[in-house]
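This week, look over our next protein:
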Amino acid sequence: MFFRNNGLTIALMLAFFMCLVGMALSGWLANNELLAEHHRPVLGLFSYLTSPEFQSALFENWESEFLQMAAYVLLTAMLFQKGSAESRDPDAASDETEDDPSNRVRPDSPWPVRAGGLIGYLYSYSLGTALFGLFVMSFVLHWTGSAAAANAEAALHNMPEVSLWEHLTSSQLWFESFQNWQSEVLATAALVVLSIFLRHRGSPESKPVAAPHHQTGG
């Protein structure tokens, strides 16, 4: 019962750890190849995992994923795409009114909802807020790791180091960020548009197979 009820999360986390291990091992080998080319001592695996190069690469990707999810949650709360399974129906009545049965407070409602007031208000936007907070955290860790990695690279070439604030305005940091951001936004847009015309039986991200293209939502 536990595995059936939590299978999606378990499968995703297993895939995440497998990819993380693959990233760590391949990155370690590639980094040591670079160090060897510059006649520098190679790193052990643990040393690489705590290095700024690994931190920068790891959080650079986390940053873009959390930005994608935060933007998706926030934009779908405000904007529509007629016919998409990923959008609310622009022609339907809003389901966010207090009269809607799904919004009535029940004994088993989350405690912030039962508490009401400011706590309830903040909780009503907690998903987007949490995802945006994770994006900010990942960006800061990417920024600091990228700055340290840039200084390590500069040391290999006997170049001067840069401060964190100087690195914040560097083209390298923003290239690292935008190269991931653009792909995440494109992938989200593709899902929104393709779900108008295509189907995947059994997936909550798809409309029913026989649903007309103009039908919005699942």
Observations:
- Residues 18 and 94 are 41 Å apart (CA to CA).
